[in-house]
Amino acid sequence: MDLFLQQVLNGLTLGSIYGLIALGLTLVYGILHVPNFAHGALYMVGAYVAYFTMVDLGLNYWLAMIAAGAVVAFLSVLCERLVFHPLRHAPPIHDKIAAIGILLFLEAVVQMYWGADFRRMPTPYNEILHFGGLTIPAQRLLIIAGAFGLMGALHLYLKKTMTGATIIAMAQNREGAFLVGIDANRVAMMTFAIAGMLAAVGATLFAPINLVYPAMGHLLIMKAFVIIILGGMGSIPGAIVGGLIIGFAEALGGFYISNEYKDVIAFALLVVILSVKPTGLFTKGVR
Amino acid sequence: MDRLMNFLVSPVLKWALLVLAVVFPLISDNEYHIYVMATAFIWAIAVYGMNIITGYCGQLNLAHGGFFAIGAYVVAILTVDHEWAFWPAFIAAGLAGAIFGFLVGVVSLRLKEHYFAIFTLCVGFIIYLLLEKWEELTHGSLGIINIAPPEGFGLVDFTETVPFYYLVLAFLVLSVWLVSRLSRSLLGRTFLAIRISDDLAQSLGINLMRNKVLAFVLSTVYAASAGALYAGVVRFIGPAEADVVHTFDMITYLLVGGIGTLMGPLLGTLAITWLTQMLQSLEEYRMIIFGPMLVILVIFFPRGIVGGFLTWRGRRLANKASQQGQDGKSQTTVNTPSTPNADKQEAGNNA
After folding, report:
1. Structural domain that includes position A131
2. Which of B113, B118, B287 sits opposite A107 (nearest CB)?
3. pLDDT tens digits for B112-123?
4. What is the torsional sign of CA B195, B201, B207, B209?
5. What is the CATH number of the domain that holds B149?
6. Looking at the 3D structure of chain A, how many domains does it have?
7. Which of A164, A212, B4, B220 meets the CB 3.0–4.6 Å disulfide criterion with A119?
8. Between residues 250 and 279 of chain A, which touch chain B (CB distance below 8 Å)?
9. Is residue B9 part of a domain?
């Protein structure tokens, strides 16, 4: 039983990070209908910025998280302005190729500056807590609390503020949003900034129990895509639920089935789901 | 200027390129250059496959590198573990490409646009993971060494660079010829119609699924055959062949040369390969240049070298024709305005 609970806890940790990354992806998709392949690279840049503000500048963990969030949010807005905005009327295949271009560029830049070594990010929360038979590293609790706190804050922002409402409005109905005078550029920039910030904070939370290296975003971004297909592209609750589903599936599958193949689980799930239902699980009506 | 322009679209150019490719090993005494050229030709064959599904049919397939690796692994496993000769293994690789392509295609092509791209990205990743983890079959992350070279039946030795170069060249010419036949056929036009609009094509009575799967299988056969040749020349392969980076490289080649054009894949592959050779010290960081280049190309020159040239030429001809048309009215010459369109169309087919 303890072993099972331990796996549930691992699933919750993974799932909350996946949810956070998928949330950024799904927000951007809802507004621009661009599958942003570069989102994983933004996550990776976030981890590096946090790592180097802590190690080179000697700042504390929380300042590093804020720095990472700010830098990546800016980078994300820059991508929107320089790349996706000029391509808004282009055929859909162009957005995807451009996003791949950004991904390749960011990875190469990081690798040139900081090398391809695997690095371990320090964290001030190294204690290990014990509850009954469970051992819980404090960092994992921080991840769960941080991720759900951020999701809650995002929910309040989208529901209770005017700017948040404009984002929702544009995701629901583009033309309708224009009709009531919503500034599309502003909304797009806001959305990219939020998505970038979520990716960077997610990276800072997750990196201490993982490793920091230039290709760290690859697997994560693909899983995030699986999640938003599962949860319906553009759906915010779908991203969170989907993230938890994949997190639990991986933790339990990795423990009870095969640790070797645990990374395949998410993709196998996707293949099965899309074979049965080509538009994803929770989508209603047409794409 | 006009002469140069006409030369560039005339069939003479293709023969000139072919002659140049044939005499290349005779003028170049640097064996390494010949080797680089031969591997570039192999990649070009794979890029031609990508052009069928992505360029003509409009579906961005991100598992292309995975199918390349499947071809390479089929040859490697059959020749090393089962002691087959190269040519039967080569044919088996092509068949494997077709079978896997069919299976993946039937599932994935029910999905549209973004879903298809994401799905194939995941398929490519599954292929990579399987090649790395399934150690009994694929030797895992160690890779496979001592793959049999293509046998020359006592006439030629394909372990030498120059004979191998000609072998690959022959396959390349065959590939280009097949694609040129395809692009002019009814099937090729069907693919184009699907690219322009799914719904429109369907309303014309085109069976979307059957044609898309056909395009997909053709492309995976190209990829797997190229992979098989690659295994024959490099003779050592590992799971890294299925890395998504190779797919991204091929997208770069295709986009630089001109997506959906006949000569684009070849020109793009050669241009980028030699550019990379020149910037050899940058090998690892080539994406610092190629990443932004992809973005700039997509924004400003979405049709690449060949497509850009054709657009420019078409516009020029149209301008000239309309001028002539205005002069012509007073001199009672007729029919000039209709020629540029015909020309443009012809150019589009040939180039």
Report:
1. 16-221
2. B287
3. 777 888 888 888
4. positive
5. 1.10.3470
6. 1
7. A212
8. 260-261, 263-264, 267-268, 270-271, 274-275, 278-279
9. no
